[in-house]
Amino acid sequence: MSKRLQVILDDEEFEEIRTVARQHRMTISEWVRQALRTARSVEPLETAERKLMAVREAARHAYPTADIQAMLGQIEDGYRSGP
Predict the structure, then answer these.
(1) Residue 2 and residue 54: Cα distance in Å, rounded?
(2) Contact status, residue 29 vs residue 17, Cβ threshold 8 Å
């Protein structure tokens, strides 16, 4: 479902956006949607503190591990044995 977003701009700002949108041969609405998508992709959804908390939580657990060469050898053996 689509939602409408109303943004109030002063005349100068609006004209600048209109000019840029025309240079890209798109409507103002489409230019604004693309600008917002770009801004969203750059802005992290999670805070740094929340990410650190997740890493710290994972580090408290003991997960089974093996020597990397042994694991790679087992993987290769599995590929060679086939389905």
Answers:
(1) 33
(2) no
Amino acid symbol at 9 = L
Q: Are 20 and 30 in contact (CB under 8 A)?
A: no
Identify whether 47 is part of a domain: yes
Rounded Cα distance between 48 and 60, Å, is 19
* Phi-psi category of residue 7: left, alpha or beta, with phi > 0 → left and psi -120 to 50 → alpha: beta
Domain count, the chain: 1
pLDDT tens for 23-61 read 999 999 999 999 999 998 888 777 888 889 988 988 888
Q: Is the pTM of this model over 0.85?
A: no
Residue 71 located in a structural domain: no
Q: Is residue 56 assigned to a domain?
A: yes
User: Which residue segment(s) compose the domain that 27 sits in?
Assistant: 7-60
